[in-house]
Amino acid sequence: MSTSSKKPNPMSRNREISLEELPGHLFRRLHQLAVADFSARMGDLGLTPVQWSALVSIKQRQGLDQITLSREIFIDTSTLAGVLDRLESRGMVRREASPDDKRVRLLYITEEGAALLQHANIVVFETQEWLMEPLTPSARVTFMKSMLRVLNRND
After folding, report:
1. Which residues sit opposite 94 in a β-bridge?
2. pTM, to two decimals
3. Which of 26, 103, 110, 125 has its CA 20 to 30 A from that of 7?
4. Which residue range(s) make up the domain with 83?
5. What sign for the dihedral angle of Cα 129, 37, 57, 90?
């Protein structure tokens, strides 16, 4: 069988690049859409997606430490420190030294932070619905499963 009968690899390096065929480009564009819509809807609540993620995780696991939080929301510890500084200065979270190790900072959501989070969650759900709106219910399930498969692969 001759090699000329093979179909060309769509990801071949020896052809013109179409950005619309590159998953990484499409993921970046989807991220841009999601963040832009989230930010527009968040308005006066003034939370970024990362700040929202931090508040959700802290509320679900009061007293978790900063290193564990950084792993849970997939953000480096240096960036997270700034995020927590901003949330703490707004009275949304408080940090306390661990009784077991004074170097470890434990995180707690405040009443103000919990109230803000309750309002922000509505915005987040609206954004998620808007993002998935073009898809049928079954396509949404497939899309979510596909994204998780890409994210959770073992390599």
Report:
1. 108
2. 0.82
3. 26
4. 46-133
5. negative
